[in-house]
Amino acid sequence: MGEISHKPATLDKLMAYLGLVPSEHLSGSKRRQGSITKAGSPLARRMLVEGAWTYRLPARISAQMKPRLADLPREVRDTAWKAQVRLCARYRRLFAASKRPQVVVTAIAREMVGFAWAIAHMMAPSAAAA
């Protein structure tokens, strides 16, 4: 009963499920992208967007996070730091380009899902171990 029935198999499907992909309008050879689709769970999407607001601040590791990171594999810590630096810089770059703040954080949330997906795959037990 507690299991999720929809398990996206790829990152693209996960982002589409979360509604963090642009809608698309096709007519002949013309292709226009619109606002995000807002499919899937509004609660999950809101949580991601709320989390994305933190990237307006400089990248850093707080004193509370250091003990949590100590037990993680080096590869995961490196990927998490890479995400921090990249997403903070991307926030500043998009904001400096006069993008609306809501558009900026939605783009950050989408990219944050990509990093979370990568870390989840690093931590997942391999099929050979089963």
Describe the structure.
The protein has one domain (12-20, 35-122). It has 130 residues and is mainly α. A two-stranded antiparallel ribbon has the order 1-2. Strand 1 and strand 2 form a beta hairpin. The model is unreliable at 1-5 (pLDDT under 50). It contains five helices and two strands, in the order αββαααα. It starts with 10 loop residues before the first helix and ends in a 7-residue tail after the last helix. Helix 2 (42-52) crosses helix 5 (101-123) and helix 4 (74-96) runs antiparallel to helix 5. It is 55% helix and 10% strand.
Notable characteristics:
single chain; 130 residues; mainly alpha; two-stranded antiparallel sheet; 5 helices; 55% helix; 10% strand; disordered N terminus; Transposase_20; Transposase
Number of domain modules: 1
**Terminal residue distance:** 24 Å
- From the alpha-carbon coordinates, what is the Rg to the nearest angstrom? 17 Å
The run of helices and strands is HEEHHHH
Biggest beta-sheet profile = 2 strands, antiparallel
- Identify low-pLDDT runs: 1-5
Strand content range = 5-15%
> What portion of residues is helical?
40-55%
Number of continuous helical runs:
5
How many beta-strand elements?
2
**For the residues shown, what is the average pLDDT?**
89
Question: What is the 3D shape?
Answer: globular
What does the secondary structure layout of this molecule look like, with pairings?
Elements (H helix, E strand, L loop, with lengths): L10 H8 L3 E6 L2 E7 L5 H11 L12 H6 L3 H23 L4 H23 L7
Antiparallel strand pairs: 1-2
Protein name: Transposase
Organism: Teichococcus vastitatis
Pfam families: Transposase_20
